[in-house]
Design a protein that fits this description.
Layout lengths: L1 H9 L2 E4 L20 E3 L2 H6 L9 H5 L5 E3 L7 E3 L7 E5 L2 E2 L4 E2 L4 E2 L6 E7 L13 E7 L8 E7 L3 E10 L3 E9 L2 H8 L13 E17 L2 E19 L2 E19 L5 E21 L2 E23 L4 E23 L2 E6 L3 E16 L2 E14 L2 E15 L4 E12 L1 E4 L10 E4 L7 E14 L2 E18 L17 E18 L3 E16 L8 E2 L6 E13 L3 E12 L3 E2 L4 E6 L9 E6 L6 E2 L3 E13 L3 E10 L9 E5 L4 E6 L4 E10 L3
Parallel strand pairs: 5-10
Antiparallel strand pairs: 1-41, 2-9, 3-4, 5-6, 7-8, 9-10, 11-12, 11-42, 12-13, 13-14, 14-15, 15-16, 16-17, 17-18, 18-19, 19-20, 19-21, 21-22, 22-23, 23-24, 24-27, 25-26, 27-28, 28-29, 29-30, 30-31, 30-32, 32-33, 33-38, 34-37, 35-36, 38-39, 39-42, 40-41
Amino acid sequence: MALAVFPLALSAQNAVWNERIDSSVIQARRVRPELTVIPINTADLRRTASPMGEADPIKFIQTLPGVATGMEGSSAYYVRGGNEGNNLTTLDGIPIYGTGHLLGLTTSYPSEIVSDQDFYAGGFPSDVGGYTSSLLQLTTSDGDFEKTRSSLFVNNFLAGAQLSKPLKRNKSSLIASVRVSPLGLEYNLLRPLMDEGLPVPEHINALVGDAFAKITWKTRDRERIFLSVFGSYDRYGFSPNKTSSQALGWSNLIGNLTWIKESASGWEWESRLSHNDFRAFQDQSQKINSNTTRMSLQSALMEEGLQVKVSKEMNARLRVQTGADAYISFFQPGVSKVYQDRKRAATAGKSLITGRGSLHGQMGYNNGPFHTTAGLRATVFFSGDYKTVKPIADLLVSYELTPSLTVKATYDHAVQFFHSLEGIPTGWSMEMLIPSTRQNRPETADQAWAGVDYAHGPVTFSIGGFYKRMKDLVFFADASSFFNSGWREWQYNLESGTGESYGLEFLSRVETKRFSGQLSYTLSKTDRVFASLNFGNPIPFKFDRRHMLNFTGEYKLSKGEKASHSLTAGVSFMNGHWETVKSGSYPIYSLGSEDKREEKEADYTSHPNNFQLPPYFRMDVGYHLTVQGKKNQHELSLGVYNLTNRHNAYSLSWDSEAGKWKKLSIFPIMPNFTYRVTFGRE
């Protein structure tokens, strides 16, 4: 039953919206006191619902204050008014530019390989740069140095295996993971059972998966080296009719060689060499008579990096950290190719080479109830004939008024040296990445936050307010044809502008023996200003959701030595996002003599994002069972995503024949499951 839901959801739910659109409308764990970082733990992931039925750190991040979601069920998120492309995810210090699987339904990396997951929305560390909204740092496990462990799992749309074993006892270890999706097989088996009238392909070819391997050597006491490789691939192909076919996809390939040493005097050294390759593509083929024309649009970023960092606790009050990094990046934004009967007939687009080097330093100081962390980063960047030096600064100050109450404030000046043309923001991992140039300057953001943290017994909460000012944001004026193979010269469709976001955030957590839960609320406003749009007046950000409320909870039914049961529930309520609809119409006249002149009407739009969709509401429930055997552990998760079967509107379309607006919604009620068995436990 669960497998049958996904193809039905992809076909979209077209339902008549009875409300009329008037043409004149224009409208845990407690945060650590020394850093504004939220560590993501297993309990957080278990409580958070996902259409996939598996642990997903992005779905947890989407429940935090200040975070707005994109398309329902997707991995898209927007932090304090920033774009999706302003969020950075790193895997052992290396950026993952394509973070989504299955059109954004889940992340491209498995949670099983990750030992630590830290999320920042402010108070950023100085050793990572190149983003303006948020940072998700993922640290992978080293593997087991003493015994072999393995696991197998399956859920609605993924199956996989993990292995951790010593290669040489107490000297070297291996951890490996592989996941694949049977999505294409599932769809093709279920398509005959679907309504023939649904506007969906008869057949889909899908190849989705990821793999990770890491070898760690303990070379000396307090010294280790690891080599890791991560790759992910998404490709979806379908045929709208017998004479045409389409395909789209994206991939990651990351290589990492890292050396880490802790000296007897307390110095900690870390150096890293990295290779990063991200690619996205779309192909369209058309057969006319016996001739086949194929058009391809590709975007790629290949990046070589070197990082060095050293840190030390000088004394009980002072900790220092400094380092440097350098990157050479090869961008291929929007390379278009045309093939006639497998022979290349035309090519448009070129590669752009950029380089950047940074020096950074950070100091943390404690004196009784007072704590501060200050970081500076200076980056030299060049792209063609464009060269610049940009400073980045981060500051956190906190004061413990009482053992339970802490006052805290942060300020961040952030810079991003590439732009992400996100097209239709569905959360799909298909962003086209373009470097900053003299025409499209680096994006910058200045953000201030102030608030209080309170903890008493099992309850903690924080409340605060933020203000964020963004500059040199890029707006892609032709997003509707984002991955259209006939589209070229993307640089002529870009608009540059500013953004402003401010609001209040509230987060409360409770941890008792039986119950754990989290409640968050955000009241915020986000605008954009582009000189050529709306006469230079502010327009709402597409995902400016004024009110956002999220609750997740878990109740432990029982917990014994051999088995434990728990129930989970979640509720999400928020304002709908903004959509662009026609504001009215005006008469036009065809050319010719007056007696043959024909009068028609043309639609006009006042500005982008001129109408707000209805509020979003979703309720989820789940059940989790863990059975511990002598050597094996079994875990079963059952859940229902969107329990009330609410058809939340994602976009609108005008049905001219019916004379009504129709809404497009993505997910109906969706059951899910995950089963995992782990071997080698004691």
